[in-house]
TrEMBL record:
UniProt xrefs under PROSITE patterns: CYTOCHROME_P450
Protein name: Cytochrome P450
Protein family according to the UniProt entry: Belongs to the cytochrome P450 family.
Domain of life: Bacteria
Keyword Oxidoreductase belongs to the record: yes
Keyword field: Heme, Iron, Metal-binding, Monooxygenase, Oxidoreductase
Native source organism of the sequence: Streptomyces silvisoli
InterPro entries: Cyt_P450 (IPR001128), Cyt_P450_B (IPR002397), Cyt_P450_CS (IPR017972), Cyt_P450_sf (IPR036396)
């Protein structure tokens, strides 16, 4: 059983509950079975999100000052809502750090 569905750790573990309190990030598990590919998976996500961001036409922040998580260790926005006019087709991006 995955830790994310562990009833001893999470109340009502099968319920989709985005605002769940005490919602520790365990997507890569933890302890001795911590995902060996976590660093690669994070790098892949960075590449994929950058590729997606390059395809957005006229992207802009919805909140001028995005709310930050009240967490001194894992600093970052609670959410980052981005509005855009449209999404360019995949063929405009060749996987470099710049759109063509
Ligand atoms: C978003 C992508 C990924 C997620 C969410 C993820 C998640 C997980 C989770 C939850 C576990 C623990 C499983 C358990 O406790 O039985 C795990 C283990 C593992 N993952 Fe990943 N993983 C990802 C990507 C990868 C990649 C890219 C690789 C390898 C290239 C990888 C290799 C492994 C290995 C070898 C284990 C077993 C570790 C052990 O049992 O000691 N994972 N992963």
């Amino acid at each position: 059983m995955t830790r994310l569905r562990e009833p001893r750790r999470f109340a009502d573990p099968d319920r989709f509950w985005p605002q769940r309190p005490d919602n520790a990030h365990l997507a890569f598990s933890g302890g001795i079975h911590y995902c060996l590919g976590a660093a690669l998976a994070r790098m892949e996500a960075q590449v994929a999100l950058a590729a997606l961001a390059h395809r957005l036409r006229d992207p802009r922040l919805v909140d001028s000052a995005p709310p930050y998580r009240p967490n001194t260790h894992l600093r970052g926005p609670e959410r980052l809502l981005v509005a855009f006019d449209r999404l360019d087709p995949v063929s405009r991006f060749r996987g470099t750090d710049r759109p063509i």
